[in-house]
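Below is one such protein, fold included:
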Amino acid sequence: MLKEFKEFIKRGNVMDLAVGVIIGGAFTDIVNSLVKNLINPLLGLFVGKIDLSNLTLKIGAATFKYGEFINTIINFLIIAFIVFLLVKAMNKITNSEKEQSEQKPPEPTAEDYLKQIRDLLQEKHN
């Protein structure tokens, strides 16, 4: 079982996933700061309040924190848009590399070399 675990960990996908999760966590902190410190004050100009997270609705004993929900939606939209841009950029890079590899002339085959040798031998005998 330990051997299987070592093989599992050695696979590249596991490390890629770990790096993605770590960077995603750090990126989430950046987006949260962006929303809290830049976007919320901008939206607050239109709503009339600077801090959207304090927006609540009280019905009886229940308190609905819809401001926090708005913050979460804004965070999601920002992250989704940036992931979209990253995927689009990666697709563009991948497609351009693919196009470059398709534009290269084909490598000569053994048959091509044999034809060249045959033609050179015929020229020598003529």
